[in-house]
């Protein structure tokens, strides 16, 4: 077994590395067509994403929310659901964090932050679990429902921040009340990136263990592979779907909690900047593997971070970064077709005749 | 997008040989500094060619880039999240920027945080909300666009045949009230019978609603439309297609409506160049500045072909009035549209009376809506 597992890992690494190289070649052709030297562009991509402390910090800052929102798609996907509700779960989580944070004025730091994070996670979790329940008990397609729940979440937030919980002191930017200043989360030691990064990495690792090393995770894989077979095996599939949806939504809700506690201090339209949708991309690039999400989020975070420098150095439009992201996405998806076709990774190739 | 919008700035031109020679050598990051120039960074919340708010700042960036010894780096579509601080840091540490123009209101907290971290860098913000205790290397500045709206109003009042004009506002905020009031006061200064329908869309940016509102106003008989939204493009194009007059807002939008464009109320954010100069010369600079035509902080778009010379003269005379401070926007007797008297006969509010203007949450007489 170990041998096959190692082979599978090597296969994934080789295919993803090839996909990355092909993407870069295609992107190089694209910028050449725009009249730029691709080598300069590669250098600036590197400079803006990983070459300096500030570049790495930008990359990780961008990556932090993506790790958590990617889980919102990845975990339910293991049970066979296509959930795209990370944006909504993030927003709901952010709003819940604000509501709890405002009530907690005067609470000790650790208690306050823990309760706010829990509030964000539970709100996001219930939000996506609701979509899971609609699917299991009412036959509503979870992709459609989570997409629509995104709009509902955003509309609910706008309703709240323009009326019931609006901070009227902020004249030009419509926003909710702020959480107490003493409950704001600062930066990590050594790198100037907020704590959401550490929470994202730990959450990904925990969920990796849960999904890959436990009987529950194995059951979910069975369910994702074949629902009928899971039913035949007597697995509690409704419960498992709800738990997966809850965990995924909770992760996105946590992302919202940290946007509030570490970045903004309040809920506003700045929560709706597409972290949820970018997370879907990360989840697919990671092939729904929670540990791979960490790496993929960092790579996409790097693409976004260096996008700014590309704009500044070459006067390329902002959309150039999206071209690169889109290329990466398409090539990685296309490369899925290569799995199982490269003989070198098949046990048979190593069998002596 | 035009292929080469910006001249790719000086550093690319001058660095071209360098790049060719050293290809990927690590000389690239040093290029800006190597020129002995001062780098100024502009950060936009949206696309810089949005026919609106961001474009007004892009106009300023181009003017500042033309100054001697200044190169400009720009980044657009930067959301008001943790990303802003990273973009600022990246501009300072990788591009060597010494001055940062943060052109969106929501950048304020990030600008203040970065100002503490980089005391040698100057930061400007467009809200003019600096207060005692904030870092002294931050400047807030903002123009009185209501003065430019007053001039648009004069043109609108002269050109309107129906005696009804329309104002579309984004949010019920003090400067939208002021702009609408300026527009109506200007129009009624030349046609006291005129009325103005005001509609608030509730969004900074909602093209569908803006188009619907424009059509609705035209259906109600309004024949001059001005839209105070992030990008008035849709409203102006809709009005042009319906064959009515329009006035612009933010930047020069005359190209959008070759037939019906009258003039427009513009910011002059390039007035921030004086802060850059003062900062570089170690001269004192204000932390808070507001002003109108007198301080050269707002501007008027070029007149459209439809505007006859005598109207142009009348508008320019009023502009001179603002410059000379002989014309005041709010003078008594002044009533709001509910019939409440705001200013008594002979009572005059100075154009620079910011506290009065900040407190305005009423429409002047003649406003409907």
Give your account of this protein's structure:
The complex is a heterodimer of chains A (353) and B (369). Chain A has 353 residues and is mainly α. Chain A has a single domain (37-315), classed as ABC transporter involved in vitamin B12 uptake, BtuC (Orthogonal Bundle), CATH 1.10.3470. Helices cover 74% and strands 0% of the residues of chain A. Chain A has helices spanning 2-33, 38-51, 53-78, 86-103, 109-138, 142-162, 196-213, 215-225, 227-232, 237-264, 275-285, 290-314, 319-335, 347-350. Chain A starts with a helix and ends with a helix. Chain B is α/β, with parallel strands linked by helices and 369 residues long. Helix content of chain B is 37%, strand content 21%. Chain B has helices at 9-22, 31-34, 53-65, 82-94, 108-117, 145-159, 174-190, 207-219, 233-242, 273-280, 309-324, 354-358, and strands spanning 38-43, 70-75, 97-102, 122-125, 138-143, 164-169, 195-200, 224-228, 245-250, 261-267, 288-291, 298-300, 330-331, 334-335, 341-343, 348-349, 367-368. In chain B, α6 (145-159) runs parallel beside α7 (174-190) and α8 runs parallel beside α9. The longest helix of chain B has 17 residues, at 174-190.
Task: Give the tags.
heterodimer, A: 353 residues, mainly alpha, ABC transporter involved in vitamin B12 uptake, BtuC, globular, B: 369 residues, alpha/beta, 12 helices, 17 strands, disordered N terminus
Largest sheet of chain B at a glance?
Answer: 7 strands, mixed
Order of helices and strands of chain A: HHHHHHHHHHHHHH
| Average residue pLDDT of chain B | 88
CATH topology of chain A: ABC transporter involved in vitamin B12 uptake, BtuC
User: Tell me, what is the CATH class of chain A?
Assistant: Mainly Alpha
- Strand percentage of chain B, roughly? 15-25%
Q: What would you report as the Rg of chain A, rounded to the nearest angstrom? A: 21 Å
Give the oligomer, counting copies of the same chain as homo and different chains as hetero.
Answer: heterodimer
Q: Supply the helix-strand structural class of chain A.
A: mainly alpha
Element pattern of chain B in H and E: HHEHEHEHEEHEHEHEHEEHEEHEEEEHE
First CA to last CA of chain A: what distance?
21 Å
Q: Major beta sheet of chain A, specifics?
A: none
Work out the largest interface and the residue count of each chain: A-B, 39 and 39 residues
- Total strands of chain A: the figure is 0
> Helix content range of the residues of chain A, please?
over 70%
What class would the helix/strand composition of chain B place it in? alpha/beta
The structural domain count of chain A equals 1
Q: Helical percent range of chain B?
A: 25-40%
The rough form of chain A would be described as globular
């Amino acid at each position: 077994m170990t041998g096959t597992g190692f082979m599978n890992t090597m296969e994934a690494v080789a295919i993803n590395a090839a996909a990355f190289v092909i993407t870069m070649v295609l992107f190089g052709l694209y910028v050449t067509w725009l009249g730029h030297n691709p080598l300069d562009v590669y250098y600036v991509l590197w400079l803006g994403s990983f070459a300096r402390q500030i570049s790495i910090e930008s990359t990780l800052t961008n990556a932090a929310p993506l790790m958590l929102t990617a889980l919102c798609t990845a975990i339910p996907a293991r049970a066979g659901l296509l959930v795209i509700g990370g944006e909504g779960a993030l927003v709901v989580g952010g709003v819940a964090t604000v509501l709890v944070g405002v009530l907690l004025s005067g609470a000790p730091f650790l208690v306050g932050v823990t309760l706010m994070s829990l509030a964000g996670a539970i709100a996001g979790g219930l939000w996506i679990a609701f979509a899971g329940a609609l699917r299991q008990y009412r036959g509503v397609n979870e992709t459609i429902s989570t997409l629509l729940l995104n709009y509902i979440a955003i509309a609910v937030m706008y309703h709240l921040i323009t009326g019931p919980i609006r901070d009227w002191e902020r004249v030009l930017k419509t926003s909710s009340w702020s959480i107490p200043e003493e409950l704001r989360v600062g930066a990590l030691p050594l790198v100037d990136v907020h704590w959401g990064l550490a929470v994202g990495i730990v959450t990904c690792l925990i969920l990796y263990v849960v999904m890959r090393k436990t009987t529950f995770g194995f059951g979910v894989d069975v369910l994702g592979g074949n629902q009928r077979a899971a039913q035949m095996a007597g697995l509690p599939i409704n419960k498992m779907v709800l738990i997966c949806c809850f965990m995924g939504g909770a992760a996105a809700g946590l992302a919202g909690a940290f946007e509030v506690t570490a970045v903004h201090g309040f809920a506003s339209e700045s929560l709706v900047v597409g972290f949820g949708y970018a997370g879907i991309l990360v989840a697919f690039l990671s092939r729904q593997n929670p540990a791979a999400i960490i790496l993929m989020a960092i790579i996409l975070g790097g693409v976004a971070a260096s996008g700014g420098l590309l704009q500044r150095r070459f006067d390329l439009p902002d959309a150039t970064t999206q071209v690169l992201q889109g290329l990466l996405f398409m090539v990685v998806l296309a490369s899925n077709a290569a799995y199982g076709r490269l003989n070198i990774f098949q046990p048979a190739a190593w069998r002596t005749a | 997008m035009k292929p080469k919008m910006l001249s790719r700035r000086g550093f690319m031109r001058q660095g071209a040989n360098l790049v060719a020679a050293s290809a990927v050598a690590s000389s690239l990051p040093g290029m800006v500094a190597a020129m002995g120039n001062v780098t100024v960074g502009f950060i936009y919340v949206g696309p810089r060619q949005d026919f609106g708010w961001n474009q007004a700042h892009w106009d300023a960036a181009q003017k500042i880039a033309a100054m001697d010894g200044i190169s400009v780096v720009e980044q657009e579509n930067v959301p008001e999240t943790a990303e802003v601080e990273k973009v600022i840091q990246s501009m300072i540490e990788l591009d060597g920027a010494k001055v940062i123009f943060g052109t969106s209101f929501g950048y304020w907290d990030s600008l203040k945080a970065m100002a503490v971290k980089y005391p040698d860098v100057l930061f400007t913000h467009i809200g003019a909300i600096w207060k005692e205790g904030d870092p002294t290397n931050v400047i807030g500045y903002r123009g009185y666009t209501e003065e430019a709206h007053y001039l648009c109003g004069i043109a609108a009042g002269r050109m309107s045949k129906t005696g009804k004009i329309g104002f579309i506002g984004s949010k019920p905020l003090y400067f939208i009230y002021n702009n609408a009031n300026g527009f109506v006061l200007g129009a009624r200064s030349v046609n006291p019978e005129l009325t103005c329908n005001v509609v608030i869309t509730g969004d900074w940016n909602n093209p569908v609603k803006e188009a619907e509102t424009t059509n609705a106003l035209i259906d109600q008989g309004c024949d001059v439309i001005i839209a105070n939204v992030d990008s008035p493009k849709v409203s102006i194009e809709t009005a042009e297609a319906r064959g009515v007059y329009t006035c612009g807002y933010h930047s020069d939008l005359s190209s959008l409506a070759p037939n019906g464009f009258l003039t427009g109320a513009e910011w002059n954010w390039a007035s921030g160049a004086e802060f850059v100069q003062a900062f570089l010369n170690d001269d004192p600079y204000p932390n808070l500045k507001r002003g109108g035509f007198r301080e050269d902080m707002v501007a008027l778009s070029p007149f459209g072909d439809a505007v006859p010379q005598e109207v142009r003269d009348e508008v320019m005379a009023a502009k001179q009035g603002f410059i000379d401070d002989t014309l005041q926007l709010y003078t008594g007797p002044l009533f709001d549209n509910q019939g409440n008297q705001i200013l008594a006969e002979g009572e005059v509010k100075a154009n620079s009376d910011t506290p009065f203007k900040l407190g305005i949450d009423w429409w002047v007489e003649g406003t409907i809506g």
